[in-house]
Amino acid sequence: MTQMSPTKPRKKAAILCARQFLIENSIQILPIDPFIIARKKGWGPVNCVSFAKQEGFKGKDPLSLLCGEDADILSVNGSYKIIYNPFIKSRERKRFTIAHEIGHIVLGHFRNDKLRLSRGALSDEEYDIIEKEADFFACEMLMPLPIVKTMGLQKAEEIQEVFRVSKQAALNRERDLEWWGHFKIADELGPELLRRFGSYIKQFFSRTSQTEKELNELLRE
To answer: Which positions ≥6 away from 5 have C-beta within 8 Å?
Structure first.
């Protein structure tokens, strides 16, 4: 049965999917490395120049393999393969790009017949919807809000340093804290995430005057 394309970005679903993905894959330390995660899942990532050589695309511009400017997902031998632009200078941008592509896979965008055939088959509105969903996923995967809140990170500079993201991504997360950090969605699946990252969070706070008892109480909230 053909799956219908979403009519609007499913922000909550994308956010919770990212948190569940971290839990299911036993991610426990920061900064989260989407390259390592993708490799463990068998999704690459491979830079498009290397991929073109491996697949024998002679005389073809490797960048032409990408649907977008930064990365794309191809089906290779029945599995997904993330290929990316190796000429992106910013390491932070590369990390977000890979997390974004992981989001497309995990959110099931390519289980939809229309999306699987070609992104070119989408209207501009439909394409914008799945791109926003993948961005929501990537942002939450790299900077899980329950962890950001528990660590007391409120400024973009602090978020950028801990999570190794771009300044713009950190600013977006700072805005999220201000606009919807107090809503229920900010804490859903939070306890399980905090248990997973508990050791790292304790190390982070070890430079402060907080006692072990205070830290344990913080992680139980």
So the answer is: 112, 114, 115, 122, 126, 129, 130
Q: What are the residue ranges of CATH 1.10.10 in the chain? A: 1-142
| Domain topology for 1-142 | Arc Repressor Mutant, subunit A (1.10.10)
C-alpha separations of 179 from 131, 142, 167, 173, 221 in Å: 21, 19, 18, 10, 21
Return d(Cα 163, Cα 142) in angstroms, integer. 7
CA atoms of 41 and 53, how far apart (whole Å)? 22
Name the one residue in this structure whose structure tokens are 């900010």: 186
Residue 47, beta-bridge partner list: 84
Residue 62: is the preceding peptide bond cis (ω within 30°)? Answer: no
pLDDT tens digits, one per residue of 146-175: 999 889 898 999 999 999 999 999 999 999
Global pTM? 0.86
Instruction: Specify which residues 83 forms β-bridges with.
Output: 46, 72
Tell me the per-residue pLDDT of 15-55, one tens digit each, with 9 for 90 and over: 999 999 999 999 999 999 999 999 999 999 999 999 888 88
